[in-house]
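debug: dumping io for the single-chain case to check the tokenizer round-trip. Nothing else runs in this session.
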Amino acid sequence: MARSRRDRLAFARAPTLRRGALGLLIVATLATGAFWLGHIVPEVGGPVIGIVGGMALAPLLGEKPLVRAGASLAGRQVLQASVVILGLQLSVGQVAAAGARSLPVMLGTLAIALVAAFWFGRLLRVTGNLRILIGVGTGICGASAIASATAVLDAGEDDVVYAISTIFLFNVVAVLLYPALGHFMHLSQQGFGLWAGTAINDTSSVVAASSAYGVHAAVEAVVVKLARTLMIVPIVLALQFWVSRSRRMPTGLAISGWRLVPWFIPLFVLAAVANSLGLVPSGSASVLGPAALFLITVALTGVGLSARFDAMRRTGLRPLLMGASLWAVVGLSSLSLQALTGTR
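debug: decoded output
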């Protein structure tokens, strides 16, 4: 009987797995074109072309179940796999140095984002949960932070959609503008990576913008971004404590801090350890670099195809103004803190 039940579960999962695989194949095919165009226009790069092309095709293809399943896999699992591959090209010393170098800027921008979210939210009369969701999404890591905070706040679906749509909009703006602004300000690869890693919200957009700027900028940005992502744990635990005190929630709803850590962060560190121990062949960089960039392009194409413009239209003006204000404040504060700490 137990075997029969397992067989039924496997049979039920098979169509979903096939749909995801076929959808991912469609996304990868579209991304191949973006990757090729990225070689022709390296100033823009495949990931940026992928997300813009995906958004352009979203009204036509994005609602199809096959494409939606593939885009979901690309925007999450494929992106996370590309980050792990980047880790194979780093040493533990490089990861530690980049993390330590970014710490003052990262903590400073996070504190500024949370304080600014409180004040802009009050000024623009954005309601409590929505204000918190946009704040943690901007300050930490976009949709991942919003999802984690939602589990604690028990936020309504409309608030979640509004927050994610607002964050998504300014992620795309950052992907398109940041590389050009970085060149205009003559930022170094390290400086741009630190700026992107601390001032852009979602991991996918951080990777897209920094990859367009350069390989070294992408490596720096990924390390900074992953360190910033770990801030989910203390922030969400603090939210949980606040909610339990203010709303008298039962202690049985407690969330383990370690369950909030994305699985690919430990794998990224293990990949860097493997490279430091000489387990990664020395000549593999010529293969790993393009492979990671292609996977990033696939992921960003999936992110673009996932765009929901109807949700953006329903977002309304005040949350968008709050998101725009936070986006500008965090970007400017990151540059200012870099100048103060001499990390540009």
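debug: round-trip ok. The chain has one domain: 42-341.
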